[in-house]
Amino acid sequence: MAAWLAGSSSKLARSAARRLAGHLRRRGPDPWLLSSSTVPARGQLAGDLRGFCSVRRFAADSTAATAAEESENEFAGGDLQQVVDFPGGKLTFVGEMNFVPESQRERIKCYRVLDDDGRIIYSRNNDFVLKMHSNMVTLQIMDTVFYEAQRQGRISFYITSNGEEAINIASAAALSADDIVLPQYREPGVLLWRGFTPQEFAKQLFGNKMDYGKWRQMPIHYGSNRLNYFTISSPIATQLPQAVGAAYSLKMDKKDACAITYFGDGGTSEGDFHAALNFAAVTEAPMIFFCRNNGWAISTPTTEQFRSDGIVTRGQAYGIRSIRVDGNDTLAVYSAVHTAREMAIAEGRPILIEAMTYRVGHHSTSDDSTKYRPADEIEHWRTARDPVSRYRKWVQGNGWWCDAEETELRNSVRQEILHAIQVAERIPKQGPTELFTDVYDQVPSNLREQQRSLLDTIKKHPSDYPTILYSLDLLVRPTLRKPPGSLSSRATSEAPRPKP
Question: pTM of the full predicted structure?
């Protein structure tokens, strides 16, 4: 039925065109035409078009075209097999009316290296094998311990990366230290790989005086200028166009580096996602867009977000090379990001990576995901599809690791993180005076007045403000000045970035 309809539609269109051409030749131009010129004679239209846009016929064109074909195309001034260079791009005409389907008949395939049992499918890459395993185990245990600390009331908020450890560590391992990272909020493993210690994570989560963010950010909003890791901010997808700007600056400075930004499937429903992809495409920025498609934007499933074949198809719409990868396959993620980085820098182009995965943990400590997805589904992904166990099977299968080493590693990491929590809890909090620094070079009078008002309030109501938790010089600091080498809150860091 569909084939018959398409064929009939094209025949009707050609027939209508012939009737209209004959009608115009007999009556001349009608007043509703935009131009008073007559319809061009046969063969004249293509020549006239060259004055407006270039026309190139296929080399396969032949003068042996049938009379019937010539008759059907007489209004078009020749055959329809033309490549016309419109301002929007070169296009080929067809004589049949075909609507582009809303989705492809076959879904785009997903790149994979390891199967669920940790066996190599296609190829392997042994770079950083044991370090990647150690980092994934560390991230997994760190999430467990810090999550428990939040449940005990020791920190106020936490987000885990359970089920997405391979995405964190493998993608980070494929990057250079000079590459700029603009994360979402589920990529602490990238920082971990770059050298951020469990103690540094704990300092941020507890908001003590050693927190690089000076207690201005909510927990898990890590940042490190030293490690080229932009401070996390909660608004969804705002980091995407910012990342393109960072990538374009690297291109202008002719740096051998790229920018990478991470986001979830929910982030692709934001306008910033589309603006960023178009921005990167037209500027040809060395940029990697890394989408963690874990199926859920908090409680909203992908089926309620879009009807397209995931995220990977959107890259083509913006002229961006794209790939879909098994996000639970450590080697596949590493290989895909490593290759994407090479293409982005060498060819000056953005790359879109869609990593298929599953968020095993709750969205955050403020969420109970069993309210909107079945518990047995979560358990299946936690056990049968765990990326850490899958990678470990491959490592042990090659004789590079054993159960005793695994036990020792896990015990050691857990003790290190528990110690980090104990240390972080004993360090005093930042003083309230830090609320007013790092914004202006010279602090204006209105902020100085607000600071005095705050300190007066603390003095009048000491029982409401446990100043014992703060630094001892809190109430005696005479003036408010910008500390040497301090940075804005958006780029807060432990050390200024070295100048090139």
Answer: 0.74
**Catalytic residue of the set 70, 148, 342, 379:** 148
Average pLDDT of each block of 10 consecutive residues along the chain (500 residues)?
45 51 48 36 38 35 41 44 65 64 74 82 65 97 98 96 97 97 97 98 95 92 97 96 98 97 96 98 98 95 91 94 94 94 96 96 96 95 95 93 96 98 92 84 92 89 70 43 39 40
The structure tokens 């995407």 sit at: 240
DSSP class of 472: T
Give dist(CA 440, CA 402) in Å, integer: 55
Of the candidates 95, 52, 99, the one whose C-alpha atom is nearest the C-alpha of residue 76 is 95
- Residue 412 appears among annotated catalytic residues: no
Please pick, among 171, 363, 369, 434, the residue that the annotation labels catalytic: 363
Nearest to 265 by CA among 302, 314, 315: 302
Q: Determine contact, residues 352/289, Cβ cutoff 8 Å.
A: yes
Quick check: is 234 catalytic?
A: yes
Please identify which of the residues 8, 15, 71, 234 carries the catalytic annotation: 234
Helix, strand or coil, per DSSP, at residue 301: strand
Q: Is 23 annotated in the active site?
A: no
Give SS3 for 479. Answer: coil
Q: What size, in residues, is the chain?
A: 500
Q: Which long-range contacts (CB under 8 A, 24 or more apart) does 93-102 make?
A: 95/10, 95/13, 95/14, 96/6, 96/7, 96/9, 96/10, 97/6, 97/9, 97/10, 97/13, 98/6, 102/307
